[in-house]
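thought: fold this chain, then report.
action: predict
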Amino acid sequence: MNNERFETGLKKLQEIDGEAGQRVIESLATIAPDLAKYTIEFPFGDIYQRPGLDLKSREIATVAALTALGYCLPQLNVHINGALNVGCKPEEIVEVIMQMTIYAGFPSALNAMFVAKEVFMERNIITG
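observation:
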């Protein structure tokens, strides 16, 4: 897996997600190492390297998309943490999820808000 695109992507993933991204890669190593490689190379080695958006904007867009999909709760957890890591405020994340009630519906937004609550509690941003 050692190539420049992979290494560049891995550095960007670590910048955004810290150890969470590495855990995903390690969990795929024994069953689908190519999927782990592609998960690093394309999104983080290519797309996240583009100059058109800063990391904060990219993570806001990602939180919105994962909220709208409604069935990607583990990935949403990682990207809410990533959004916080790159400078998003908890209030901004809540507002992005609230905005998705219009386009994705209440069930998706509710599921996402519970994930956000879990992340905020783990990070001691809020309590119970």
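thought: worth noting. The two ends are 42 Å apart (CA to CA).
final: tokens above.
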